[in-house]
Each structure stands twice: as C-alpha cells, then as structure tokens.
Amino acid sequence: MSATTEFDLPFATPPDLDATMDIQIPALAWRPDPAGGYRRVLHLGGHPIVVTVREADGGLRVTASHPHNELPGLLRRMFPVQVADFDLGTNPVWAQLQARYGGVIVMWSPPFEALVITVLSQNRTGEIVRRVYPNLDQLCGGLTPQSLAALNRDVLRAAIRSAGPYKADRLGELAALVAVDGLDRFDELIMHGPTADALAYLEALPGVAHKTAACVLVFSARTTTTMPVDVHLFRVADRLGLARHDGKLTPSVRDAVIAQLLTHGADVALAHFVFLLVGRTTCTAGPPACTACFLRRDCRHASSSQPNEENQR
C-alpha cells in the first residue's frame, strides 16, 4: 500500500515561495494548493506522483503522494539556487534587487517541458498557462514529444484554447520534430551543447523566436550568455541605467541590451526575471511609481524625475 512521503530542501536564505512561483517559466507547471503551497504531478517510472512544496523553517517541505528514490534529487534540481547566491555585479541597483528578491529560488525545468510552457505563455498571462499546462500534461499521460505529437489536433486545440488554439499546430509540429531526433538528443543539445547551436536549433522550430529559445536555455541549461528580453526588462533596465537603448526593441538593440547586462555579473542572465517583478509593480509602462519604489535611491530615472514630481504636487 502506497503512502505519502516528506523531505526537506534546505536553503541558506528563507525562501519566498510566492515570489518564486510568480513569473518564472518552470513555475507555470505548478498550481496553488488549497492547503497552502504549490503542487504539480510528476511522472516517474510510468506513475503519476502528486508533489506539493511549502515554505518551512530553513527551506521547503516537499510532500509526495508516493515515495520514489528519484524524487529528492529531482526536486533539488528543480529548486537549485536562490537570487541571494548570485554574482550580479557591483552596481548598487543589483544589491537592492538581491536584498528584495534574495529568497526567490531560480527554478529549473526539463527542456521539452520548458519549451512547451514558453510557447503556451506567448501573449498570455501566467495564470492562463498555469491552468492549461497541467491539463495538457494529464491529457498526454505525462508530457513527452511523442505523446504531444500523437494528440489529435482538434483535441489539442480544445485543451489549450485559452492559451491560443492557433498554437496547436506549432506545438504538434515541434513535438514531432523533437520526437524524430529523440528526447535524449534534444536534452543533450539544449543542456550540454554550445549555446549558439542550441539557440539556432530552437529558433528553427515552429513558433520559436529568440525570446522563447532564450527562456528554454536559461531555465533548462542555466545559460549565462544570453537571456530573454521582454518589454519589462527592456524598459526597466534602461530606466535603472543598467542597459541603455534608443527605445526600439529591434534584434540588434536587443542583442546590445543583453551584452550590456551581461557585463555586470556572471549570473545576470539567470536573474533576468527580477526586471519583470519590478516592471509589473512600480516601474510600469506608464508613469512609474518612483516614490513608492525600493530602487528609487539608486535609480537613474527616479533621480532625474523626482524634482518634476515634487513640482506637480
């Protein structure tokens, strides 16, 4: 008779699980648990195992519906390191970001899972993907290239409707391509091959451009030589003075922004999502809430705009 099992994942900095699960691509495979924490289904040895993670003293407490000897190692891999542990450079803005988000765990996801979730997230909110992906995983009996490619397209369209039914064709096609090459070869290329080769392979798949490919590489391969650039990062990095640009997000400007950011510290690419956290709260697309922002002391934009804000009061 099977029984639940529990174990702990220790961390040096008290984890901030809600912030961890807020915006990262691997987090979108997890749903809030009514009893607290977050849960998902993992498929090990052909069996579905319901896994829940919650904050605990000194780390995370993992509860699984069934024991499996691979679980502790897999969960450690999925929750490997925190923002507090990163080398982000000496600019005081980074120190402020680490002080605020140091407890955030930078998650890991298997490459094919990361690819599918990122495609689902294109032009959709995390909340929508968090509803769609677990159902798609269940429909596949555990997401694999073979199981996804085998799904009837009408069934797939219905399953992902809120994330965009038009994505069914691109998901089915890319799954078929990966299945032909084999998942082991795909994993080897993405996680252990040269970044340039992995980037080119991913960008050749249907519906995959640089941002999607870079998401997969950062979250699955821990790539430190490129990063996804979205409108939040583009805006916030410029306002903070960490990467300047002319306001037009072209491929060449994107690459220049990435190059500037990567000069700050070895782990900047892995922490790229902190710009999204800031950009969705205080440093919004409209007039930013500089006076309420924890970065205002060291922010180039806040320093230059504060006199005008005071005069408007």
- Separate helix tally: 15
H/E topology pattern: EHEEEEHEHEHHHHHHHHHHHH
| Widest sheet: strand ordering | 1-5-4-3-2
Shape field: globular
Which sheet architecture does the biggest sheet show?
A: 5 strands, antiparallel
Helix content: 40-55%
Number of strands: 7
Cα end-to-end separation = 69 Å
Class from secondary-structure proportions: alpha+beta
Low-pLDDT runs of 5+ residues are 308-313
- pLDDT average, as an integer? 94
Beta-strand portion reads 5-15%
The value of Rg in angstroms is 20 Å
Report on the structure:
The protein is α+β, with helices and mostly antiparallel strands. The chain has helices spanning 17-23, 71-78, 92-101, 111-121, 126-140, 145-149, 153-159, 167-181, 183-192, 195-203, 210-221, 231-240, 251-262, 274-279, 300-311, and strands at 5-10, 31-32, 38-44, 47-56, 59-64, 81-82, 105-106. A hairpin with a 2-residue loop joins β3 and β4 (47-56). The longest helix has 15 residues, at 126-140. It starts with a strand and ends with a helix. Mean pLDDT is 94; it is low at 308-313.
Describe how the helices and strands are arranged.
Layout: E1 5-10, H1 17-23, E2 31-32, E3 38-44, E4 47-56, E5 59-64, H2 71-78, E6 81-82, H3 92-101, E7 105-106, H4 111-121, H5 126-140, H6 145-149, H7 153-159, H8 167-181, H9 183-192, H10 195-203, H11 210-221, H12 231-240, H13 251-262, H14 274-279, H15 300-311
Antiparallel strand pairs: 1-5, 2-3, 3-4, 4-5, 6-7
Helix pairs in contact: 4-5, 4-11, 7-8, 9-10, 10-11
